[in-house]
Structures are given as C-alpha cells and as structure tokens.
Design goal:
The complex is a heterodimer of chains A (about 425) and B (about 625).
Chain A lengths: L2 E4 L1 H11 L15 E3 L8 H4 L2 H4 L2 E5 L13 E4 L1 H11 L3 E4 L2 E4 L3 E5 L8 E9 L2 E7 L9 H4 L1 E6 L6 H8 L5 H20 L2 E12 L2 E4 L2 E6 L3 H8 L14 H11 L4 E6 L6 E3 L4 H13 L8 E6 L4 H15 L8 E5 L9 H14 L1 H6 L2 E6 L5 H15 L3 E4 L7 H8 L3
Parallel strand pairs in A: 15-17, 17-18, 18-19
Antiparallel strand pairs in A: 1-13, 2-7, 3-4, 3-7, 5-6, 8-9, 8-11, 9-10, 11-12, 11-13, 14-16
Helix pairs in contact in A: 6-7, 11-12, 12-14
Chain B lengths: L18 E4 L3 H13 L7 E5 L6 E7 L2 E8 L2 H7 L5 E4 L6 H9 L6 E4 L6 H14 L2 E3 L6 E3 L3 E2 L7 H6 L8 E5 L5 H11 L3 E6 L10 H10 L5 E7 L4 H10 L7 E6 L26 H10 L11 H14 L18 H6 L14 E2 L6 E2 L2 E2 H6 L3 H11 L5 H14 L7 H11 L4 H9 L9 H15 L3 H11 L18 H13 L4 H16 L7 H16 L2 H10 L1 H23 L18
The chains are: A alpha+beta (about 425), B alpha/beta (about 625).
Chain lengths: ~425, ~625
C-alpha cells in the first residue's frame, strides 16, 4: 500500500513494451532484457534469445541493490559463456553489502552497448506534492555525484505534460543540437508513460545515446502500488520483490499469508531471534511507538521483533498470530529471562476483549514453555470493552504461573516498556 | 434554512457546522449524532447522506433517545441544493472512487472542507485533488484518516471511538489544546493523554498516513496558531517525508508562537537493517533528513518542546500546560453537566447490562460462526463426510445424524417421489402456469398447491392410520372392518392401475430395502397384513407407494428415536415434506422443459368441457 520498488528488468521491459503507446515510435527502446532467476535454464536461453551468441553482454544482480558497480557486482563486455559462468558462480550465494547479508538469486542480462563517456546522461523523475520533478544532468554513470545539487530541474505541475520544446529549454542546455532533439523527444514520451503508469520514482543512470538511438543502461524505479486497480494490465503482472537481504523467515511468511486471508492487518518482522524483548502490539501507529521506546531506552539490540495486528482481527487470527510469536520467543532460553509486551493504544472500534481471547488461548497453550523461559508479561490496552479484556488478562495472571501485569488507559501507553526494562524507573 | 455568518478561515468546524456523509455509513452517522447530543448541539451535524448507489429517500437515526429522519440523496448536486448550509463533506468512498468523489465535491461552491477516509488512494490522483483544492482555496483532510474533532462542537465520522471514550477523554466540551497527528489510530490515545494532562482538547486533526496528505501537520498548526481559543499545540509526527521541517521553519519564522509539544515517531527505524514499511504509506525514511531522530533534533533546536522519548510525552505536555495555567494564559473552565446518552441495545447486551426474551428461537442451524452449522455439523463437514442430501435432511428435519442406511432411505424416497409424468395434478398445474408466462417460483408454487389429501398427501395419513391401529393392538382384520364400517378409505391403500398381478415396482423397491436394512419393520409388516385382506376383496387395493413410504418411514423414525418423538414428527406432517421436496424436483423439471420447448399459453378446448347450461 505504498511506493514499491520493482526489479530493473521489469522496469526496462515495461518501458520497452509501452513507450510506443505514448508518442513517436522513433524514441523506442528495444526489449532485449533478460531476467534470470533461480528457476531459469541458462542453457536454454540462447535458443530464445539468439543474439546472446553474437553480442557481448552485461550482467548484474537484479535485487534492488544500490551501487552494484562499486560493490564489484557488474560484469561488462562479456561473451555469453563468460556471463553464464559468472551467474552460475554467484547464483544462490550469500553476499554482504553495507552490512546487509542476502542471497543472490536474480540477475539481469542485456547487450553490452559500446559508448563513450560523453554519451552518458542522467535522467530521473521524482514525485513531489505539487507534481513531478524531472532531473537531467549531462553526465551520467556511477560517478555522477550529487545530482540533487548538480542536475537541471524542471517541476511539472500535476496534470500537465511538458513538450519536447519545454524540456529542451529547461533541461538540455549542455547538449548539442542533434542530441537535444532525440533526448528531449525521449523524455517527453517517458514522462507520459511515467505519469500514466503511476510511477512514483524513475531513475535512468546512465541513459546513453549511440548512433542516434537511446539505450537505458541502468534503471531504478518505484511504482505506486495503490494504483494497481488502474494499471494492472499496463504493469503486466508485476511482482514487488522484498528489499535485498529481507528474505522472509518461515514465521514471517506464515504471518504474511495469514494477513492476505483477512481484511484485518497482521504484520511480523523478526529482528533478532535471540532478543529478550518481544512485542505483540495492536495498531500500526502504536507498534512503532513501542519499538521506538524500546530503542530510546537503550534496548535496541534486545528488541526481538516488530509487528502489529489491527483492523479488528477475529479470535482465530489473533490466536494464530500470538502463537507464532510465543513459539519464536520460547525456542532458545536465556538465563536472564524474557519480556512479552502486549501493548496497544486506545482502540477506536476493535473489541479488546475479543481480540484478547485469542491471545489468552495461545498463552494458555504455551504456559509451560513461558515458565521455562522465565517470561514476564506486561499488558496495556484501552478501547471498546477494554475493562472486560483487562479483567480476563488479570484472571489469567492468577492461574497461568507466569507473572502478568495489566494496565488500562489510566497508564501512559509506553509505561509497560519502562516497567519491563527498567522496573519502572 | 438560515445561513450563518461567514466563519473565520481558521475555523473549519464549529457547533453549527453541517456535513454531508458520502456513502451509506450509518454507524458513523449515528456516532456523530451521539456526539452532537452529548455536546448539546441544537441541530444534528449531519445534513444528509449521499448514497450514489441508492435513490433519494430517508434514513432513521437516534438523536438522544428520539428518532429522527435524515435525508438520503443519490446525487451530490441534489444534496447541495436541498441543504445549502452544509459546507463539509465526509467522504467514505472506497480508494477506487475517493479521489473522483472529492473532485466533484470541491466544485460545489458551498463546500469548504472535504475529509477523505479511504486508505490506498493513488498518490497521483491525490496530487490532482490537492492541486484543485489549492486553486479553489478549499481544505482537504486525509486520505487514510479517521478525521478529527472539535471538542463539544463537531466530530468527523468515527473519530474518538465509542461514546464512553469520548466522555472519558472529555471530547464533549472544549479545552485549550490544538492537536495534530498523522495517525488516526493513535488519535484516541493522544486525546486521552491531553485529557489527563491538560484542560482538554480544543481541536484534533489526524492528517492521515499517506505520502501526500491533503493538508499537512504545519497547515493545521498554523490554523491553530490563529485561533484565539487554542492556547497550546500538541503534535505527533512520523518518520518519512519533510513535513516536520515545515514546522521547524514556521517556528524559526515565528509563524508558530504558541508552545508546541511534539514528538516524531519512528526512532526505532535505525534498528532495522533493511527497509521496513511501517503501517503508513508515508512512513519510510528515504534519506537521513527524513529520520525521526533528525526531525526531533531539528524541532528541539527550533524551540519546540520535544521529549527524549514518547515515554515522557505526557509529562512534558503536563509541564507546558501547568506553566500556561500559572501564567494565567489558560483558566480552566468548570466541567459542564453531561447529558445522559442512551446506550445502544447491542452494546448494552454485549456488556451484559440488559436482557430481553428473544422473539424467535431456532435449534437446527446457526450461521453466527465462521461457517454455518447444520445441527452440530458445519456445511463443509456435511459435504466432506459425504452425508449427502439425506444427511442434510436428517440434521435439519430430525435434529440428529441418522446412520447411513437411513440417509440412503431418505434419498431413495426423494428419487422415487421426484416425478410421475406430466399428467398428474402437480405437474399439470405447473405446466399450465409456466405456459401462462409465469416464472419458476410461481409455476412451482402453482403445482405445489395441488398437494393435499387427494394428491400426494397420503404419506402422513397412511403412517398415522397404520401406526395408530398397530399401537392400539387392533388386529389387521378388525382394523379393515372398522374402517369399512366408518366408511373411511384406508390411506395408502389402493391404486388406479397397479394391482397384485401388476405390482408397483417402486413399492417393491422400498419394501425390500426396509426389510433388508431396518432393524425392525413392525408397521410395514402390519400394513402388509392389511394389504392381504384388502387385496382379497379387490386386487388393486394394494399398499401403494405413498402408503409404503409412510409406514416404512414411520418404522425408520421409531428405529432411530423414542416412539413419542417419532409420532410427533408424523403428526406434524414431516413425512409429507418428503413428497413436497421430492416432487419439486420434477415440477422444476417440467417448468424448464416447457420454457425450453417455448410452449405458448394453454387454453383448454371447449369441446373438452361439458357446458351444462340450462
């Protein structure tokens, strides 16, 4: 439900496929981008793309990784044989970039375009409140530097579309006349596509012009995923990949699947499975504040998970959600014990007692494991029927054998964080 | 209606504000009216409901304990003409149509403010809305918000939650604090904090969690700054976007001078190694400047009151408020009396405050859970366990799951009674009705209505007569003699064509199945004894299909339940149900057949009617 990044190959293929619908055919980009995933049969590719055998190629990982060139994740001017070997060596291997470790499993293969440094340009379109900014810089490539500072900028108010003439005048002062015409024409068409397909961000660096033809060498893009109902066919079955290094754990995937089955919201991210502070917080806003407070009190390293449930999920869903968290938190004992924060703001309409029912069921089921793991539970919640919900939790505290402290709206929302971590001081 | 004097531009909502509600949101409307009543408003804050998929009508609501009618209009234009005093539209349209409905509302001259509730409005569409609102100098709140509230004056839709919460957070009367936040989900929490640490909220707005909200935090803070009734500002920002830097600039430029307590949430973002999208679309830091830490720092440096953590937010609000009271800027007002708000029936019931005998009872099925129950079985269990139609009937008619032999017998009876050709009364009537152009249900009903004592109704009769005689211990011969003496035909005995020499194979089928599969068949045995006597008199006085089904079914019920209960079912006419259900299969078939064959209106020929005129 927001701006979401897409794979480079998907973005390039989309542009190649759709550009002709938005203007003059002479600004077309040829679709010779190959997306390679773990399931791709590399030996079969040349049959489908005969040019692989006759053209030098470029290969890069296609997993929303920034600065691939600088991280040595770029193979240039290679034969298909070399490229295939390069991919095979790296497929399904782990790499670490800027502290994030992840599995390489998607690559893009495309023809190597021989060009000079002078042929490289930087183009980007970004979404701002008033409309969209088109950025252009007459140099491109990995060393382009701070484009926010250097690039020519043109604000296109929402609802309007700049002509090639406008673009030439505002952005392309440094280009020669021949290049001006072709680049301006291309940006005009590109902007139409960007707007009509609800892109939220589009960056081409570099854009290259060789022999009067446009080539998109490197592309990063985000779509506004809320526009799917308008753009479904134009997007052509696009899949939004997880950011690099964020492959889902089994439990995260399970909660994601649960989430997709209900109109309510269920979210779970495991941050540190060995962490001692676990949260089960109702509401998107409140869950962030609980995580903030844990961080602000200096327990960032101990924070085991981030997540939230909201939109009045029924008892069955809260039970499954709670069980998943309890299962994760009781796998490995810690001599110092653990904390479970069952928190939440004052709900608008979620029935507190009924959502607590599912949580209570899960707590009862995990009673022994909670005792074994020396878990202390802290509850804070308000909203419809909260008195009944809190009463049930207190009652559970007397029989469960696990300490449970229970608070309502009279206590500040994050009081239980301090109580748990600092003993209230 | 009288038009009010032009309001200052910092006032979006007051005690006279009237709104349109776009889409049939009856719960939200009722909540607004309850708030109005608690705030002692003279007129309801909802002028009309706009229901684009309905037609012009009225809808019933409570104002206190009194019932009132609110107009419902199909078109925005009509609503505007009929209610010229409404200047707010609360737009509950879905994310698909919210932007278009807003653009339409903006064009109505009387509308000053549109609130968009939907989450997931495309950003590009929203930018168009924002641009148009700016051209027309109008205000958008949302999207992806619960709305906002002016304490004791006007409440947007579902803001504030339940009426208990509204009273607990003292939203029914004005305080001195102006509050703005992104999150609608946290607004109750924030209002609660304000109620507990100050003299209460004056106005609270949740701008919504999107990347491009119609109005921003600073827009509302600047509005609050101009409003002399507001003495203190409270805000809750979040990670992502640049909105908080607009506040920093307004503080630096002294455009905001009232004390501002603010906290930007999302300081935990640094704990996440990779990108995590929080609940809100806008809550994502793209660059260092958009992080919560950077924003909190900038705000603190610009002179805002920023706690070290949300944990101290309440204390800081209390401190700033206490100072304002000391300085005499705020003079707390005495608490007004709260009118008693009648509790909604369902709320009272849920909290076990009241009870009421139900008008209806049901003991065979229950659709309140995840899946509908037939007896104690869910529909999917009925299907997965292969219980068939027999199982469904067993559960729904007889409140128990009978053994497989019984279920099969029920299905056999349905198959046997399903049709008996086009000439019998039921099918005939059905065909005539169909040919008169009637629909399926009318044609079926027309055929059904012929079922009675002479056609198809003998199943119950036979079961009753035979079981009564058997239970009394009357010998078969004596029973036949008694009936003859009374001049009563024995139900289920006799056939127009079939006879001992030309037996009815359907009867054979049922008889044999019962004899082979039932634990015992005393009633069938009795009926067969009776048949021996009657067929001795005339060979077509056989146990016919109705009679056979009737007595066998009575045997079956007695096999599976106490005799009194079995008799009760027979006396209620349950067995007739078998014929009605079975035969409707055939009658529907005849109806479809006639339609398929395009048969025209039937008119009975004169020559087939004996006109007995004088």
């Amino acid at each position: 439900m927001a701006q979401k990044a897409i794979r480079e190959a998907q973005g390039k293929k989309m542009i190649a496929r759709l550009l002709k619908d938005y203007g003059d055919r002479k600004y077309m980009v040829e679709d010779n981008f190959i997306s390679v995933g773990p399931e791709t049969d590399l030996d079969a590719l040349p049959k489908e793309y005969p040019w692989l055998e006759s053209t030098k190629v470029v290969v890069k990982p296609d997993q929303l990784i920034k600065r691939r060139g600088k991280n040595n994740l770029l193979l240039l001017d290679a034969s298909w044989n070399e490229a295939r070997g390069w991919i095979s060596e790296r497929m399904k291997t782990e790499i670490t970039i800027d502290g994030v470790t992840g599995l390489l499993d998607h690559f893009i293969v495309e023809p190597f375009i021989k060009h000079d440094e002078d042929d490289e340009y930087y183009v980007a379109i970004t979404s701002v409140r008033e409309g969209d900014n088109i950025l252009f810089y007459h140099r491109g490539g990995v060393d382009v530097g701070d484009v926010d500072e250097k690039a020519e900028k043109m604000l296109v108010p929402i609802g309007s579309f700049p002509s090639a003439g406008d673009i030439e005048k505002s952005l392309l002062g440094y280009l020669n006349d021949e290049r001006k015409g072709i680049v301006a024409g291309f940006i005009e068409v590109l902007f139409r596509l960007y707007a009509d397909c609800h892109f939220a961000y589009l960056e081409i660096n570099p854009l290259v012009v060789v022999d009067g033809r446009i080539h998109i060498l490197d592309l990063a893009a985000r779509l506004d995923s809320t526009a799917e109902f308008l753009c479904k066919s134009k997007w052509g079955g696009i899949v939004f990949p997880s950011p690099f290094g964020r492959s889902l754990t089994k439990e995260e995937a399970y909660i994601e699947e649960l989430d997709s089955k209900t109109g309510s919201s269920l979210k779970l991210t495991i941050l540190n499975p060995k962490g001692r502070v676990w949260t089960m917080v109702a509401g998107g806003g409140a869950s962030v504040i609980y995580a903030d407070t844990i961080t602000d009190l200096g327990y960032m390293e101990e924070m085991a998970n981030y997540g939230e449930y909201s939109g009045d999920p029924n008892e069955e869903f809260t039970y499954k959600y709670a069980r998943t968290i309890l299962d994760c938190m009781t796998r490995e004992k810690d001599p110092q014990g653990k904390y479970l924060l069952i928190g939440g703001a004052i709900a608008n309409f979620t029935d507190v007692a009924s959502t607590f029912k599912g949580i209570i069921r899960a707590l009862k089921e995990y009673r022994q494991k909670l005792i074994d793991n020396k878990v202390k539970i802290f509850v804070r919640r308000g909203g419809p029927n909260y008195k009944e919900g809190l009463r049930q939790m207190k009652e559970l505290g007397q029989s469960l054998g696990v300490p449970i402290e229970v608070y309502g709206p009279e206590a500040h929302m994050t009081k239980i964080v301090k109580l748990a971590l600092k003993g209230g001081n | 209606m009288k038009t009010t004097a032009k309001k200052p531009d910092y006032v979006l909502f007051d005690r006279t504000t009237r709104a349109f509600i776009y889409n049939m949101q009856t719960k939200a409307v009722q909540r607004m009216l309850d708030f109005d009543y608690a705030s002692k408003r003279e007129i309801p804050s909802v002028a009309a409901i706009i229901n684009p998929t309905g037609s012009d009508s009225y809808s019933k609501f409570f104002f206190g304990s009194q019932e009132i009618l609110l107009p419902v209009y199909k078109s925005m234009q009509t609503a505007a003409e009929k209610c010229p005093d409404a200047d707010v539209m609360i737009n509950f349209a879905s994310f698909r149509s919210a932007a278009d409905a807003t653009l339409e509302a903006l064009e109505l001259p009387q509308i000053r403010t549109v609130v968009i509730i939907a989450e997931g409005v495309p950003e590009r569409k929203m930018k168009e809305v924002i641009a148009r609102a700016k051209e027309l100098d109008k205000v958008i709140i949302g999207p992806a918000t619960i709305g906002g509230i002016v304490a004791g004056a006007f409440k947007i839709g579902n803001t504030g939650g339940t009426i208990e919460n509204i009273l607990e957070s003292k939203l029914h009367r004005p305080g001195s604090v102006g509050c703005v936040s992104n999150s609608g989900g946290l607004s109750n929490e924030t209002y609660n904090i304000i109620a507990r640490n100050t003299d209460g909220l004056y106005e609270g707005i949740a701008i919504g969690g999107d990347r491009f909200p119609g109005t921003t935090l600073v827009d509302h803070l600047l509005r609050f700054e101009k409003n002399p009734a507001i003495k203190m500002l409270v805000a809750l920002g979040e990670v992502g976007g640049n909105d908080e830097y607009e506040i920093v600039r307004a503080l630096q430029e002294k455009k905001i001078t009232k004390p501002l307590v603010i906290w930007v949430t999302g300081t935990c973002a640094k704990a996440f190694k990779t990108e995590v999208q929080f609940g809100h679309a806008g809550a994502k830091a793209n660059i260092e400047m958009e992080t919560a830490d950077a924003k909190n720092k900038a705000l603190r440096e610009a002179g805002a009151y920023v706690p070290d953590s949300f944990d101290d937010y309440d204390k800081l609000i209390n401190k700033v408020y206490t100072n304002l009271v000391k300085e005499g800027v705020i003079i707390p007002a005495p608490e007004p009396e709260i009118p008693k708000i009648p509790v909604d029936y369902d709320v009272a019931l849920k909290s076990k405050m009241i009870r009421r005998p139900a008008n209806f009872v049901s003991s065979i099925s229950d659709d309140r859970g995840e899946e509908c129950l037939y007896g104690n079985k869910t529909i999917s269990q009925v299907v997965r366990e292969g219980l068939g139609i027999g199982g469904a009937i067993s559960l729904l008619w007889f409140k128990r799951l009978m053994p497989q032999y019984a279920l099969k017998f029920i299905e056999m009876c349905l198959i046997i009674t399903a049709d008996h050709g086009p000439a019998v009364s039921g099918a005939h009537n059905c065909i005539v009705a169909t040919r008169a152009g009637k629909d399926l249900i009318s044609s079926l009903a027309s055929g059904m209505l012929t079922i009675g004592p002479r056609f198809g109704g003998a199943i119950d009769g036979a079961a009753q007569m035979i079981s009564e005689a058997y239970d009394k211990g009357t010998a078969p011969a004596q029973f036949v003699a008694e009936m003859k003496k009374k001049g009563v035909n024995i139900q289920g005995i006799g056939h127009r064509i079939k006879s001992t020499h030309n037996p009815d194979l359907r009867v054979t089928l049922i008889k044999e199945y019962a004899q082979q599969n039932f634990k015992e068949t005393p009633l069938l045995n009795y009926a067969l004894e009776v048949e021996k006597i009657t067929t001795a008199k005339r060979d077509n006085l056989i146990l016919n299909v109705d009679g056979c089904i009737g007595v066998c079914f009575a045997d079956l019920l007695r096999n599976e339940m106490p005799r009194e209960e079995a008799n009760e079912y027979i006396n209620m006419g349950a067995l007739n149900g078998l014929f009605v259900l079975g035969r409707s299969i055939g009658m529907i078939g005849h109806h479809l057949d006639q339609k398929r064959l395009k048969q025209g209106l039937y008119r009975h020929p004169w020559d087939d009617i004996a006109f007995l005129n004088e």
